[in-house]
Amino acid sequence: MGYLIDTCVLIDHLTGRLSPDAGAWLEQVVASGSAATSVIVYHELLYGARTEKARAAVEKLLEAWEILPVDRRVAGRAAEIRRDQAAKGRTLGMADCLIAATAELRNLKVVTSNVKDFPTVETVLPEKTATTGL
Fold this sequence. Notes:
By secondary structure, the protein is α/β, with parallel strands linked by helices. Helices cover 57% and strands 13% of the residues.
C-alpha cells in the first residue's frame, strides 16, 4: 500500500515545520515510488503560493511525483462520501472528499495532520511515521 500526501504535510515540509525525522521519511517514500498526491493538493499548494519563488518551490518539490487526477469514478465516490457523512451530521469539504475518494479507490493511506477531515480512509500522522517507520 502506498501513500497519498495531503496539503498540510507538504506545506509543513516546504516551510520547514515538518520534523527532520518526518521529512526524512517523506523523502524516503517519495524516492521509493510509494508516495503520490492529488491534483486537488497540487491546486491547493499553487493557490497558496503567493510569490513566484513559492510557486517554483511547489513545482520543484512535485516535479517527480505522481499527481493523481480526479475522474468520474473519483467524483462519484467523493459525492457518496460527502452525502454519507452529512447524513451522520459531519460536514466535510469537497476537496477533502475528492482526496479521500482518490485514496480509497487506489488503496492508499492519507498522510495528514488533519485526521478528522478523512474519516472514511486510513490515515497516517506525519510525526508518527518518524517513530514507527510506516
